[in-house]
Every structure is written in C-alpha cells, then in structure tokens.
Amino acid sequence: MRICLVSREMAPFWGAGIGTYVSSMARAWVQAGHEVHVLGVNEPEAISKGPRLFPGVRFHDVDPLAEWDDRVLWRSDVAKRSQQVRRALIRLHAAHRFDFIEFPEYFAEGAFSIRGARSLGELAGATLGVRLHSPDRLCRALNADPVLGFNRLLTDRLEMESVAHADAVVSPTSALLEWCRTELRAMGHSMHGPSGVVPYPFDASEFAGVKGGWSDPASGRAGHRVPEILYFGRLERRKGVDLLVDAFNGLIGRGVDCTLRLIGGDTRTGPGGGSLREHLVLRLAAEARDRVIFEDRLPRDQIVGAVLAATASGGVCCFPSRWENFPNVLLEAMSLGAPVVCADSSGMSEIVQHGHSGLLFRSGDVPALADALFLTLADRSLRERMSANAPAQIRALCDSATVAAQASSMADHGRSHRASRALPSIEGGGTPLQEIVLTTPGAWRELERSARRPETTAILVRSVDASVEPRLASASGRILAAESDVAVVTAFVHGHSPRESWVPLGLDTAALAALDLSGIGAGAVVRAEALRAAIPRIEEGLSALGPGAGVEGLSWVIAAGLASLGWKGVVIPEPWVCVRGVQQPYAILPQQHRTRVVVASMLEHAGSTGHDATRLLASVLGSVSGGG
Fold first, then answer.
1. What is the DSSP letter of 36?
2. Does position 583 have pLDDT exceeding 70, yes or no?
3. Disulfide: which of 66, 179, 266, 525 matches 277 by Cβ 3.0-4.6 Å?
4. Does the model's pTM come out above 0.85?
C-alpha cells in the first residue's frame, strides 16, 4: 500500500506520545514493505534529516493558507491546521494516489479532510483512518480544566466528527475506544466505519539498545542501598503525580526506607492553573522532603539509565495516572524489566497482567497505591517475577510486524465504508432551488409555505447581507441525496475581516443552546421534508418569543426545531457564504437572552445539551473576545 501518516508530531523532531507513535509506525509500515509518506512535521530538521533517520519514508510540509480569504477566515488554530492539512492532501493525493491516510484524532488534524471527502468527494480512492490517542476534551477533564469557550467547543466537535466519519477507527486500547463511543452517543452520533484495537508498535530491543555501556553505579559499593520509586513523564494532574506524592508521604510515615525520583517537565495543571511542581513540593510531608528528587525531562538514553538504576536499587517504576491510554513510558519501563505499579481504570490494565508483569491498584485510591508500592518494595520474589515477565509481554503485544499486519487489516475493513461514502451524481446540476431571504421574522411564513409544497425538496435560505456561491446548492443536492439524516448544508462564512468570518457548527445542540452557530442565519440549504416535520416546534418557539423577536431569533429557532428532532447538519469546508454586514456569532448579546431561553427549552427534546451549553455560556460571558 501507499500510506500517508498525518501528524505535526514525530520523534525525534518534535512531540512526545503521538510523535513517538508516528516514528514507530512509519518504521513498521516500511519494514512490512509499504511505501510511507509523512505529512505535517513542519520542522526544518524533519525535511533535511528525516530521510536519513527513516529510510524509505518521504516527508512533506503542510501548505500555508496564503490566500486572503484563508487568512481572515480563521479564529481557531485547530481549524486552520485542519484546513492546511486538507489542502496539502488534495495536492499530494493527486500526485501519489494514497491507498490509506491516517490522522490522529487529537486536535482534529484530519477533520476537514474527512469532511471534504464526505461532502465534496475529495481524496477519492483513499481509505481515511483515524488513530486514537487521547482527545483534548478527555485531557482537559482529567486536568480539572473547566474552561470551554467557542474554540474549545469547536475542537471537541471536530475531533469527534473525525472519529464518527472516518472510514476506520483504530485505538490502542478498548478503554479509549469505548470512551469515544460513549462521547459520540452523548452527542447523538456514532462511528460510521469499522473500529478495532491495534496496539502501538514498540521495538523493545531498539529502546534497550540506547543504554550503551550503562552499568550499575552502586555495584561494588559497600553499605545499604535505598530502594527508589521512579516516575518519569510530564508533571501533570491527569498523570496522578499528586496521588503518588500522597502515597509516598504515607510510606515514609509508616517507616518505609525509600526515595522518590520524579523526572518530567512541569505543567500548569496545579490548583488554579498554577505550577503542578510547586504544588507537589508544598504537598510533601516534612519528613519526606529530603527523600524526593525533582528533575526536568531527560533524553531517552538517560531515561534508560534511570529505569535500570531504580530496578537495581530494589525499587519500582510507578505510573499512577487517573486515566491513561497506551503510555510509552510504561512500555519503556516494562521492556527494560522494571517492576511497575499502575492504575487499573484505563488502558494500562490492558498492558499489565496483575501479579505477573506488574501490579495494578484502584485508580485514584491513595491507600491502595501505597499498599501496592509497599508490597512491591518488600517482596523481592514478586519484583523478580514481574521483571522477568514484563519484557516478553511487551515484545508480544507491540511486535512491529504484528501491529503492521493488524493495521493493514483495519485499512482493508475501512475500504467498504469508503465505497459507501461515494456521493451520487446529480444530472444537469440538480433542480434550481427556491431562495428565501430572512429579512424579517415574517419571512417564516414564506419559508413555511414553500416547505409545504409537495414538489419542494430543498430551499436555499440566506440573510439579506449574504451571498451564496452556486456550488453550495449543487453540493447540497448530492449530500442530501446521500445522507437521509442531514437537514442543513452550509459552508464556512467569509466576511471582510476576521470579526465577520467564522466556522459554523451546523445543528450541534450544545452550541445552539448558547449561540446561534448553525449557519442558517448566514446561508444554508435546508431539506424541505425536515422543515415540514419541524414546523410545529418552530411555531411553538416563535410564539414563545413573541412579536418583538428579530430576524436573528428566527434563524436560531429554525435550527433548534430541526436539531430537536435529531436532524443533522453538514458544513462544507470552503468559504462559500459571503457576508457584507458585521457578524458577531460568538458574542453573547443581552437582547438574545429570551431567544436563548426559548431555544434551550426546545432542545430539551434532543437530550444531552445542558452541560456543554452551560459551560460555554459561562466561558464566553467571562471573556471579552468570546474565545476559549
């Protein structure tokens, strides 16, 4: 196959977890005999040194968004990056004809490429896969970061959209796959393509080889050796380092003779968004402070030495994450024969066999963590058994040839979904659409009459200050014919300044409960059948608004009526709606309060709208810019 891995991260050039995976997967695909391209590592060293460090891999930059339209369109760096990837892939696919393209779900790098394939028939012949790592929403929740804002909401929706509409979804663990399924169900969506579990490839012999001539610095010395508990990775709340510090305090309080070594960069995930390292120092008991060493992130060869030193001391490597996917640090420690203690409520329980290759403790339970550490430090035979079994388990689980074969099988399964998303042709460009301009709330009657006519299949709706490219109408005909649950097709909204340009979210219920981001108020094609079904709810909403409602309330209520019945929206990734008046779709305006109350009531029928909507409102109300 001809394969393209899309990622801004790739070790050793930049990035950690995803970057390490991309490096390992690129090598695994090459070793399996495939042609491999990597798109998006925009680091000068990747282009200059990449082909030498990764024989058989071709490197490509993403295309800059140089056109004026592009520069003013984006307020979200995540959306901008996704569009850069899409533009570059269209060009590269024309030259190389990829069989399989894989995107990380994190920060939605493939969202607009997948959307373009779905709505415009782009990247024909390529199977589009998404590899799960850990969505930004999950990371924020684990770090107790409550701020939402529009940009974060957009990131969450684009990440989950890419998962929902990928031809194939691959996860290293069943835990993360189930988390994504649950998240999609809460949003009223599901995975359209096949999904499966395929671990990360990991070359244990290559990693162990970087230790070079390491030797135990304590060998040959007289005296007592103090067992060391070693943690390496980011100092981050979701990694549970604070739980480890609390457990260590307990061990010292029980008279256990041991030390704690914490290796990793600091993050601002402490209380109030402060330094977690400073928080950990303050959290240490007085009698434990001189037994703890904090170190910044170390290079890979020094990590090998640190793991071997901890093992030789009679110690243990501990990874107490509140939730984890498939952490490379655990693979690294186990491949070197280190005894490990890990939390049980995540992907780590799918790597570690309790009592055989490591110990698992109940996630978030500090006493259980302290007991597991105490048992490991006290029982030499247990440590030796886990040390002997762990490397073989990692070799079997993460064998590069096996992983490449499993990933190839998932790509094959994805081809059937790729065929199903082929858009039908519309002879002669389709039937011309009736156009209705939302000049006043009274325009609803004209729209209703048009929707009730049996011969009407779709209606083009726009604001008085907007113009819509004819391509939107023709593309909408193909989409509405292919996807029976889609009621609204719109596009990116382009104005004459960044404040007038924005990215609609379609019929997203959580967004609609806070802001009118559907796109209907600017320009959209609406399925007449859906509009007919929603007429009673729309009229109830308009009646609740009363005679003083403006035209902005009309488009919002129409969107809420459609969304409340479960209809979906598609937003084409092109700036095909042009506005002349000033649009402030992200602003919370006092005069919209009544409309917001009415819309929220209408959306109660759609289920899970409240949590995100409340957080979005609180975030935007507290922000002058409305960003997040």
1. E
2. no
3. 266
4. yes
